[in-house]
Amino acid sequence: MNSTWFRRFTTAAGDGPRLVCFPHAGGSATAFKDLAHALPAHFDVVSVQYPGRQDRYREEPFTALAPLVEAVARELARELAADRERPYALFGHSMGSLVAFETARLLARQQLPGPQRLFVSGRGAPDAHGHIPYHLYDDADVLADVRRLGGTDQSMLEDPDVLELVLPALRADYGALGTYSWRPGEPLAAPVTALIGDSDPMVTAQEARTWERHTTGGFGLKVFPGGHFYLFDQLGQVAAALTEGLLTEAAAA
């Protein structure tokens, strides 16, 4: 796959279904490195690398969601055209859920092959969220919110050199979330599985169920122990849930 936009952390692409992973705000493709190794070896697990982080840190990050979605969908469409027979699914965490969802919607509007399943993690449906003016947050506000949500990379907040590298992407992502505007449209044909932590301060089980109205293909909710970044602590359970969803759809194809 395109080495600019997608990363593969397994030694080779398996011949099974493909899972395309979308990181959280401020996150990078490596957020899904351990998940890629926890999933069955015959899966082809790839992660989206947004501009402005890690090996793309010299590139300007997107400050609006729509152009980011357009860019990802364009690159993904090219890859799908080159491998039409392989079934695929999208998995996004937090902000990544929104990017994955809007990417699936854009592919559908362009009448391109859609995912066989959409996995959305750590976030309710876009029309269920009250508007939070993230684009008005200053650096202190952004960092306070990152600390509130927790995660595995909290140490970066205490290192001024690392912080200098990650803050531009964080600012951009929070800006994109703050200026995002929900636009109604046709529900997805693909089934949707929502995944959350039972003590996530950002989303409740009731809010996660709001994704059900955005699909005609069936809906499921899976709740795991943990907070907003539960998936890093419940890696085996999350991998099992994704495997079940992927193989179910692949068998039905």
Q: Any overview of this molecule?
A:
By secondary structure, the chain is an alpha/beta fold. The protein has one domain: 3-Layer(aba) Sandwich (Rossmann fold). 38% of the residues lie in helices and 14% in strands. It is built from eight helices and seven strands, in the order E-E-H-E-H-E-H-E-H-H-E-H-E-H-H. Strands 1-3-2-4-5-6-7 form a seven-stranded mixed sheet, sandwiched between helices. Helix 2 (65-82) packs across helix 3 (95-109). The longest helix has 20 residues, at 160-179. The protein is globular, with a radius of gyration of 17 Å. The model has no long low-confidence stretch (mean pLDDT 90).
Using the coordinates above, name the CATH class.
Alpha Beta
CATH superfamily: Alpha/Beta hydrolase fold, catalytic domain
Order of helix and strand elements from N to C terminus? EEHEHEHEHHEHEHH
**Rg over alpha carbons:** 17 Å
Q: Helicity, in percent?
A: 25-40%
The helix/strand class is alpha/beta
The number of E-state strands comes to 7
Q: Which shape, going by the Cα principal axes? A: globular
Provide the CATH topology: Rossmann fold
Mean residue pLDDT: 90
CATH architecture: 3-Layer(aba) Sandwich
